[in-house]
Amino acid sequence: MKKIVLHTFILIVSFCFSLAKAQNKISVTNLQCEMLNNPEGIDVLQPRLSWQIKSDANDVKQTAYQIIVASTLENLNANKADLWDSGKVTSDASVNVVYNGKKLKDRQNAFWKVTVFTDKGEAKSAENAHFSIGILTYADWKSTRWIGYEKLSKDDSISQYSKLSARYFRKEIDLKKQVKNAKVYIMGMGLYELYINGNKIGNQVLAPVPTDYTKNVKYNVFDVTSQLKEGKNMLGTILGNGRFFAMRQDYKPYKIKSFGLPKMALQLFVEYTDGSSEVIRTDDTWKLTTDGPILSNNEYDGEEYDARKEMKGWNTINFDDKNWVNARYVQEPGGFYEAQMTPNMKIKDEVKPISIKATPRGTYILDIGQNMVGWLQLKVKGKSGDQITMKFAESLQKDGSLYIANLRDAKTTDVYTLKGEGEEIWEPRFIFHGFRFVEISGFPGKPTVDNFVGKVVYDDIKTTGTFESSDAIMNQIFKNAWWGIRGNYKGMPIDCPQRNERQPWLGDRTTGAYGESFLFDNQTLYAKWLDDIKYSQTQDGGLPDVAPAFWRYYGDNVTWPGTYITVADMLYQQFGDAAVVKKQYPYMKKWMVYMEENYLQNDLMDKDKYGDWCVPPESLELIRSKDPARLTDGQLLSSAFYYELLIIMKKFAVIANADADIAHYDDLAVRIKKAFNAKFLNTGKNYYANNTVTANVLPLAFGLVPENLKDKVFQNMAHEVEETKQGHISTGVIGTQFLMRTLTNFGRGDLAYKLASNKTYPSWGFMVENGATTIWELWNGNTADPSMNSQNHVMLLGDLLIWYYENMAGIKSNPETPGFKQIIMKPDFNAGLTFVNASYESIYGTIKSDWKKNKNTLEWKISIPANTSALVYLPTVNASDVKVNKGKVSKNYKIENNKLVLELSSGTYQINVNNIKQ
User: Fold this and answer.
1) Pairing verdict, β 858-874 and 822-825
2) pLDDT tens-digit profile of 411-456?
3) How far is the C-alpha of 428 from the C-alpha of 454, rounded, in Å?
4) Of 2.50.20.10, 2.60.120.260, 2.60.40.200, 2.40.50.100, which CATH number belongs to 138-342?
5) Gene3D superfamilies, alphabetically (predicted)?
6) What's the pLDDT band for 7 if we cut at 50, 70, 90?
7) What DSSP string describes 192-252?
């Protein structure tokens, strides 16, 4: 009997031990170099390495790490760290750990792994990560010549509606030995597709990302070892026009920058199994033709393709290219060559059409069901020479025809000519459209929805945020924002995807980039864009309103160019990216000094260009309001914004070790604050300037209001929103960037919620109620003058998405520990929502906030990533009313502003609160 009891006891202990061991399982995942998923050819000699710790246990903290980096996978697997062994480093850093090993060389391969030590045990990374260094110096490209064809073909034209056929290149090579490793480095301007032995290399589209090619040119790198074989091989490329051969070439040359005809430079590095190597470069032995099936590709106007001109096997060996000519040496673009450190675009989604209807004109209107960005794939059978025309638009007129007035002079038309050989499937290569509806002309027979598929195209970055609430309108606004944001990521953030603009306006992303960062992993995209802005800076320090400066808009103001600083601040706040601040700081400071020296008059910034752009006008047909009572003083806007930028620059000076600048920022901020209040503050009536909501929200948000008047100014502003404007938006692009958070921070989350859930004009919900599936450019975008009513813009989102996450879900990075090292979880439970279920994939891992409440109780489920912590604010002051994972709260809490605050370490928690404070 005793033996049985003993065995039972042992079994119970063993089971409990196994259970405890399983519950403490720790893993290391998502190893990244420079926050890139596929870091081939980076141009950083001391790259930053990051990883995530996963565990099903609570309270997991990293105490140390050890990184091993090797030059080959074999060395790494043998734990031979011939590049770097960090040793065991006592640190909780798991993000942006700087490589500190042997100096890395051109085209250096590096394989790495990490062992993480925590207070719950240690874990090794399951996967081995890899990165490689690119071509670091200009000299390493000097033996590679740019090739192209500096002539027009017979059907080409340069005009307001330029047409230029695609350039096709081919080069047959003979590899005499067995290939061990091979990489290709390519710069294809404006856009390229690369083939080896008939196979397209990579799944990217519209590559590379656009830049000002006179300042910097991006190259892409591909490992093509598996594509090459001993003996004969064929290299082939197609060059499209992109932003290089400008969409309105030689039209308004004083405004639109152009770069010439398409060209390319390529290097193929081959390492053989015997240790020898070879480099194949572009030169004048490459063959070229412009007589292929892509007759024209113009981002504004569309792509024309004649399948009868297809050249079967052109990118394989033994193709007869006797009618091709030798490529010509051409002038290089002029910009410095850089590795592309942000993903290319990709077909990220497919959309099935919901209907197709015949029209009295003998055409068909196809409805995709969603305003999207990309192109249409066509499936058709017909006779040789049949020509199908597809015209794209965002909406329809009352008679059912396409509404195209808002496209301005963009033709947005694709043309496909059939070869007549059975079923043909086609989609364009070098353009994109913003559209929901397509008019189909010339289709042989009667088309159905099965003949078409919408291909959604944007940067290959992942969605990081989800949001659902008890309010259906807010949920649809979130969905519309998600569609609009991703559609306007095109290697840079553009304003719209449909009309003859599509430009990277700075003012559209001043605060918008911050909100977007909750929905998308946009860190590398915006780091690249800051470089675009830096390269656009004039010698004396000025910045444009559009960068890259494809449009020459150098007019000087604060609110648009100031985006340079606010986006850098977003990257620091959301991703903990101090390196980008240090890199850009000298150029940001140069602009700040430029504006101070040229436009600061009597301690106020005396220059504004756009005002509070897109204030809801007094008439539904107007683009811009003409009522002075709705407009905010430009000097107030620029002075308030410049003051806020000084505060940010002071923080940046500390990060960039520019302590000598701090005193100047402090002194200037004090002077501007004094002058600002002396001129604009009405102390008798407690409002600023002419009492617009924007005139009051900026000084409140930026800390310009004297302490003793803050509540009075806010109450006045809230009255303007609630009573004068009857609970509707009255702000434009500038004011809306700070409206929702300011209302909530001053205790009127209910009023912010009213703005967010409104269905009547002007509001985001009004757009939804009128059929919008993205965000409009104008509050009255369905009725305004068509010269400016894009139905896919993001600038009017303001701080709405930030408010969704930080104030409704309670997912906010503590500014004192940027990058979500510590999370502030402080939802406004009394704003009006009854539940919110949101998540955000931070650089440390997934943060979840799922709460629901009734009149008296709150149930809140939260997840905090390993190696982080959270401050959790609860609507009570009584610890006895709180249970965490069914247990009582007896310590580790404080009371702050009538809220009970818990500091929780990583893990999953269910929190229940009774008798919640209303």
Assistant:
1) parallel
2) 999 999 999 999 999 999 999 999 999 999 999 999 999 999 999 9
3) 12
4) 2.60.120.260
5) 1.50.10.10, Galactose-binding domain-like (2.60.120.260), Immunoglobulins (2.60.40.10), Maltose phosphorylase, domain 3 (2.60.420.10)
6) very low
7) EEEEETTEEPSSEESBS----TTTEEEEEEEE-GGG--SEEEEEEEEEE-TTTS-TTTTSS
- Lookup result for tokens 């960090």: 86
Report how far Cα 524 is from the mean position of its chain's Cα atoms.
8
CATH number of the domain at 347-459, please? Answer: 2.60.120.260
CA pair distance 263, 244, nearest whole angstrom: 9
The dihedral through the CA atoms of 677, 681, 687, 689 has a sign that is negative
Separation between Cα atoms, residue 439 and residue 393, nearest integer Å: 8
What is the domain partition of the chain in residue ranges? 2-130, 138-342, 347-459, 465-809, 822-913
Name the CA dihedral angle for 653, 657, 663, 667, rounded to a multiple of 10 degrees: -10
Q: What is the spatial distance between Cα 865 and Cα 28, in angstroms, rounded to a whole number?
A: 12
Are the beta carbons of 689 and 677 closer than 8 angstroms? no
Contacts of 246 (CB under 8 A, 6+ apart): 162, 256, 257, 258, 259, 550
Domains 2-130 and 347-459 share a fold: no
What proportions of the chain, in percent to the nearest 5, are helix, strand and coil? 25, 30, 40
Angle between helices 523-536 and 563-575 (to 10 degrees): 150
Q: Provide the CATH number for the domain formed by 822-913 in this structure.
A: 2.60.420.10
pTM of the model: 0.96
Tell me the per-residue pLDDT of 707-744, one tens digit each, with 9 for 90 and over.
999 999 999 999 999 999 999 999 999 999 999 999 99
Under DSSP, the state recorded for 551 is B
Token digits of residue 572: 């620091």
Superfamily of domain 2-130: Immunoglobulins (2.60.40.10)
Q: Are 865 and 907 in contact (CB under 8 A)?
A: no
